[in-house]
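FAQ: What does the model actually see?

It sees only this:
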Amino acid sequence: MDIEKRLKTLEDREDIKTLAIMYGIIMDERDFDGIKRLFTIDGVLRSADGVFNAAGLDSILETYQNRFDVLGATNHVLHSHVIKFSDNDEDEAKGLVTSHAEVSRKGDASVVALRYQDEYKRTSVGWQIRFREMSYMYYVNVAEYKDTLISDDR
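And it is asked to produce this:
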């Protein structure tokens, strides 16, 4: 691989990492214009438990609005991000993001261990999320966190 291609790959990787970081910030700040920047117009947002199943940007925005209506303050923290670029299309990549969120909901404080399985697409505005499936290792009240963490059934 020549130096220009290697440099472009590193720049693309950094752009995708920034996209994942900005997701958390945008969620925490309830920035709907930011959500429009994160997802492609035909994006898909799902959760492994079936709670989220949105196709298209308008549906994704509605899903987040409904979520924000029941949430108080949140704090999303990205831990790691594995990115694999497509061998067939330089404008496509897949990713696995590990993170956690501190969540206030209906007067309760919870901690959530999150994983995102992503597909990214380079568009006219840069890299965006084309597909995201969220899964949870646990979503638990902070008072129950210790017992949940040591349990085999999280």
